[in-house]
Structure formats: C-alpha cells, structure tokens
Design a protein that fits this description.
The structure is a homodimer of 226-residue chains. By secondary structure, chain A is α/β, with parallel strands linked by helices. Chain A folds into two domains: 111 residues, Rossmann fold; 107 residues, Rossmann fold. In chain A, strands 5-4-6-7 form a four-stranded parallel β-sheet, with helices on both faces. The longest helix of chain A has 16 residues. Chain A is globular and about 45 Å long. The interface between A and B is large, with 36 and 36 residues.
C-alpha cells in the first residue's frame, strides 16, 4: 500500500488538527514508519474566525484558507483535507485556488449519516455550521431531519475546549447537550464540529454517534491510496 | 505573546511527531486558537532510515532532511525543530541548507541533563544515537558519565512502538530496560529517542526521567517567542 501526499489545512483549532493526525496514524495499517502517509500541514490558528465571519462580525477566512491550500500544493501535496467543519463554508474558494482535490468534510459527514440509517439527526455543531445550514440543507436533501443544538448552549463549550478544557466536567456538559437532542427526538448524534469529539465519544451517548472527524480520516485513507 | 512560525521536520516516526505537536499545544499558554503558534510540518515517514544509514546498510537521510528543511523555509517557517534524536546526526547538513535556525535537540537534551544535576545518565536511545555517540560524547564533555542500553535490547521495542504497539506490555518492557540501567548505576534516565516517551513516563522510573521531547517543546516555545 502506498499513499499520495496529504496536505492538511489546519489550526481550526490546533487541538482538533492534532486529533485528526493522531487518528489518521491509528487508522493506517502500518508495520513501520514507511507504511504511513506523507503529510504536509499548515496549522494556522491565526486564520480569521469562521463564526465571526458568518455572523458578519469579522473578515472572511476564505482568502487565508485558499492561500494555505496553494502553499500546501506548491510544497507537494496531492490531495487536501481540512479538519474543521465550519471552514467548509469556504470550500469552493479553496477548490478554485488549487488543482488538487479537497476531500469535502460535509459530503463525508452526510455520507456517514446516510449509511448509519439515521432518520432524525441531532446536530452538535458550531454557530457557523448551524447558521450556514451546511449540514441541515444537505441532510434535508437526503430526506433526513435535523434537530439542532442552540448556539448559545454549545458555543461557550467550544470556546472552553479551544482554551484547553477537555476535563470530566466538560465531557459531562457535552454529553448533556447530546442527551437533550435525544430527548428532542434525535435517533443519532452528529459530532459536526471537530472540537466535539475531543470531549465526547460513543460511551457517553445513548444513540449512535457519527463522528465526522473519524469519517474524514477514513475517507482520506481511501482517497489517498495510490 | 506571539510566536514565529515553526517548521517541523517530522515523520521519524510519525507518532513521535504527533506526540511533539500535542505537547507543544499543551505547553502553550492559550485562551483560544489564535494564541497558538503557526506550525508548518513535513511529516515524511519515507525519509531513509537513520539506524540503517549509520550501520552502513542504507543511504544517508541527510539530503532528504535538508530538502524538507528547505521546503519548510520556502513555505514560511522562521525556525525549525526535528523531533527525532538520531536524525540530528545530520543537523549540520540541515543547517547548511537553510538560513533559519534549527533548534538542536541534542544540545537541548544535554542542557536538560546538566540542570538536572545528574552524574551518571542511563541512556535509552536508538542504535544510531548510541553508535554515533551523539549524547555520550556531549555528556562526557560536560563531565557526565553515561550507561548505555544495549542496542539489541531496545531496538526490537522501538520497532514495535513504530508498528503501533504502545500497550501495557510494551510499557512494562521499557520500564524494565530503565530499571536495568538504574541497577547499573544510572542516577537519571534520559529518554533520548522520541519513541521512548510514548511508552515511558516518570511514574514508571525510580530515578529522575529527563524526557528530551519535552525539553525540545520547552526550548521551541522559548526560541519562537517574538
């Protein structure tokens, strides 16, 4: 098995990027160093905020993300992944900037929900993803309902995770948000923000949990194969 | 606080690179994404093997490492770090290829040993590091004795860690190697291979453990500060 060189548009947030890299390693069948994929990464935590941009309160991160993609391509990346759901609002701008493919996280997430057989998905996502309808529109087109978390309930948690809080208290709070969505009728929880799985796993949720970060890892492994 | 952009020459092995990135994140005082350092990484697990090269059984990784360094510099890196002790045998070749500094892991490791007050260091390192005397010569110059692990004892463990085995059995085997060095008179254990701290921490060692990966993280944070 050999792989094409992956370019990672990262830093949104940096801990989510490291989580993605660690899972990519764990998911790669390898007997030694040389069996792993070459990965170029631009982890740029100074990229303009996605939530502020979509709320009309800050500049678009699109040009920065496109420049990062171009830099990775120039360095030898043969395909791109970006472990941040919200940043995919600017996926078209990134794709227009390079000649290599971007493995689309939203498409991957929607495909994972479809194969799960979910009918009513509880969406744990950041304000930008909720506001833009990135998932809810795509899921609706696939005939799948969504129940969305309230931005005011989840944004303080995401900001605390980005500040480094991934302890038991935080894990309990995120699990409670998931439970609230189940009470509102969700038959599946979609972890559609890369900070969410840093503090939430299947053991904390009473219905199936679809983790888009893991789905992206698997899609990258599949698409990077030579 | 703001930082210069770090370039990481990685992939030796990839899990050690991710460990370095995770610790760099954890050690950075940050209230949110934007407080973290921008990090460019070339994680290239296909770089020629360091142990084979120093045993005269394979090509030198020097040209590959120098090319990676040049690529990171061209992409905007302002200083370099390479979380692999053995690869520092080629540090001069890397430094000659770029105009930006490489934070030298061996110098950082030796400095950490000096401040620890150790007199006789038990060296847990790969064959290439033992064979080249990277640490033993520098420590001797500082008046510090070394007790070295036998390559035949540690290399099978390092290769198993690179193949993904970081379980309790492996942890016990690595701890036993450390204990053997203490029996031979070591008053400090030096984890001088980036795979070692993936399975060994202070709780498993009866004398102080100096972890060069952590020392590199702290040196990078210090030197990257603007």
């Amino acid at each position: 098995m050999s792989y094409r060189t992956l370019g990672v548009i990262g830093g949104m947030g940096p801990a989510a990027t490291v989580d993605f890299l660690a899972r990519l390693l764990a998911a790669t069948p390898a007997k030694g160093d040389a069996d792993h994929m070459r990965v170029l990464m631009d982890c740029n935590p100074q990229a303009p905020g996605r939530n502020a941009a979509l709320a009309g309160e800050g500049p678009s991160p699109g040009p920065t993300l496109a420049a990062m993609a171009r830099g990775l391509e120039a360095s030898g990346a043969e395909l791109l992944a970006m472990p941040c759901n919200a940043a995919h609002f600017w996926a078209d701008e990134i794709r227009a900037a390079v000649a290599i493919p971007l493995v689309g996280m939203i498409e991957v997430g929607v495909a994972a929900v479809r194969v799960s057989g979910a009918r009513r998905v509880g969406l744990l996502a950041a304000d930008a993803v909720l506001r833009s309808g990135l998932y809810s529109k795509a899921l609706a087109a696939a005939g799948i309902d969504t129940v969305e978390i309230e931005p005011d309930a989840i944004m303080p948690l995401i900001l605390r995770i980005k500040a480094g809080d991934t302890g038991p208290g935080m894990r309990a709070e995120m699990a409670a948000l998931a439970a609230g969505l189940v009470e509102r009728g969700a038959d599946t929880i979609l972890a559609a923000c890369t900070e969410v799985p840093l503090v939430l796993d299947q053991s904390q949720v009473s219905v199936p949990l679809v983790d888009v970060t893991q789905a992206l890892v698997e899609a990258v492994l599949e698409r990077a194969r030579r």
